[in-house]
């Protein structure tokens, strides 16, 4: 395992403060845990899906040095919603979840069902280069959809339930139960390009394809991230690193995001913190203070000037530990500073992380 050089951190654990980093709070958040966050690829319109069966939309505006959120609209599913994505033109939102269907929501219009599975839909992605929607389900299949047609273009059998999915055309990475990682070249989408066993020893929680399509990140429930290159000639660049740990306590890595400009990355976890990293120089750029609840999901806006993250229960301890009537749910907006997201030259990695 490679070590990351330590960077200054403000990670004094806050036992009662949901917002120790003084981020901007999104108005009128969901009434139950937030499962996904997605920014429009064209504007600062944010969508959140939630376990309260809702898909909500806000417009994020800058007011001086502040960010202000204006609730815009919402739609309902019949059961909890787990995932969301956008069309590349920023006009349409897709959402899927426990009602086993994906709804296509043209903003300002009415949602229509465009995809169905036999079990909850865990992950979705729009592939603009193919004009297709891809859906990954707990029914152990992945399906490609032309949203103008009622039936899938292709159904791909998976070795296990789909837990995570990431697309950077032509690269698509799918993480399933039993630690399978399946790589697809979307120029030949009906055939697996490669299947590997996760370099991490515990259940896969999230994946993120590299912006240059040369590899991917994988995060696990055991506070660890794997950095994997597809070209076997670059195997010496593969490594794993620990994160989201506090003493002997180990927390899940719930979300991985690459900065859209600098291509550094963030991890967010069940310890309630998010951290900025440079995988190429193997440095931790900034570790933020811990919130008083887990961070189940996060995302950057299209130019990387806003980092949105949810603070709420993440179901890591089961339903018996969750009371939706008393739980607090938050969405926060962090404005990254250049030192947090800009790459640094590689230095001696003999540090303590």
TrEMBL record:
Organism name: Prunus persica
InterPro entries (UniProt xref): WD40/YVTN_repeat-like_dom_sf (IPR015943), WD40_PAC1 (IPR020472), WD40_repeat_dom_sf (IPR036322), WD40_rpt (IPR001680)
Record flagged with keyword Repeat: yes
PANTHER family tied to this protein: MRNA EXPORT FACTOR AND BUB3 (PTHR10971)
Record's keyword terms, sorted: Repeat, WD repeat
Region (Disordered): 1-31
Biased composition range(s): Low complexity: 1-23
Protein name: Uncharacterized protein
Any one GO CC term of the record: nuclear pore
Lineage: superkingdom: Eukaryota
One GO MF term: RNA binding
Record flagged with keyword RNA-binding: no
UniProt-listed SUPFAM superfamilies: WD40 repeat-like
One GO BP annotation of this record: RNA export from nucleus
